[in-house]
Amino acid sequence: MSHSLARRLPAAKQRRASSTRRHQNRAALFFLLPGVALFSLCVIYSIISSISLSFYNWDGMTPKTFVGFDNYIELFHSDTFYTALKNNLLWLAFFLLAPPLGLLFALYLNQQMRGMRLVKSLFFAPFVLSGVVVGLVFSWFYDPTFGLLRLITGHGIPVLGDPHSVTFGIIFAALWPQTPFCMVLYLTGLTAINPEVVEAARMEGAKGVRLLWHVILPQLRPATFMAVVLTVIGALRSFDLIAVMSGGGPFDSSTVLAYYMYDQAIKYYREGYSAAIAVVLFAIMLVYIVFHLRRMLREER
Q1: 205, HSE (Cβ side, Cα atoms, 13 Å)
Q2: Are residues 220 and 248 in the same domain?
């Protein structure tokens, strides 16, 4: 009797554990369902819909007309597309200055000094401002008649009116809020650094650049990864400052793929052509994201 009871107890425990796991899995599924449904509706469906729309000619009102790859053929033969692509690459190259600048500011602000909280607030203030406000501020700054740039140089410089300088002027304006964003990421990472490791390295004689390169930066790798990825995505989807400061001009010299897409859809009612631009921009971002995800997974292993 006692032997049969002993055999039944583990079986009963296994049944209870199995039932508990089923309940936990069901509860987790119910919690995930709203997020999965929202993601599927707003992201997956939008991607599939944009890819499908890129094969049609549609003005948003009349019936769609299937045109196959005509939108892509026209896009790859357009001079404006290559101008926008070149500007996106310029944004990408100069925007990557934000993570190292953010790291320098974070190292400076990560000190125990009187009034440092106020200084941190001043450094972080540009990130709180919207892109429209930043664009208006720098438009006034660049104004050749009464702008601050005229007061500094003594004569007006038409930064936003010159096709050769307008893109660089807008990128400089965009770096103003992007650098504090990277700074906050690095400040968060600096608070998680093991002080014992840093102290041990100092006792071994490491200091200055050697301490930063061999001890601090390896522990800031997650913050660096996030700063670089978000900076690159921000560079590729740049839109608001261009819309406020130059409208893609003069002569489409400052347009990027995101603004070119908006311009074709809103001004010229070319929804299919705009969707083709969106698909190309998504493909560029997807290649970059997959590359970095694979790299991150290799480092995790």
Answers
A1: 0
A2: yes
- What's the longest Cα–Cα distance across the chain? 103
- How far is CA 106 from each of CA 109, 124, 214, rounded to the nearest angstrom? 5, 11, 18
Asked if 84 contacts 255 with a C-beta cutoff of 8 angstroms, the reply is: yes
CA–CA distance, 213 with 281 (Å, rounded to integer): 35
| Residues 46 and 97 occupy one common structural domain | no
SS3 assignment, position 268 = coil
Domain count for the chain: 2
pTM: 0.83
The answer to whether 222 touches 189, Cβ cutoff 8 Å, is yes
**Dist. CA 208–CA 298, nearest whole Å:** 30
* Residue in the structure block whose two tokens are 């859809």: 265
CA distance 171 to 241: 9
Looking at the fold, whether 237 and 276 belong to one and the same domain comes out as yes
Q: By residue range, what is the domain housing residue 117?
A: 70-300
Angle at 264 between CA 261 and CA 269, to 5 degrees: 130
**What token pair was written down for 189?**
């990472």
What is the DSSP code (8-state) at residue 65? E
What are phi and psi for residue 65, nearest 5 degrees? -125, 125
Residue-wise pLDDT for 209-258, tens only, equals 787 887 888 888 888 888 988 898 888 888 889 999 998 888 889 999 99
279: which 2 tokens?
């698909």
In sequence order, the 6+-apart residues with CB closer than 8 A to the CB of 68 are 55
Burial of 180 (0-12, 13-18, 19+ CB in 10 A): buried
Strand ranges (E), 92-244? none
Which helix (H) or strand (E) element contains residue 56?
strand 56-57
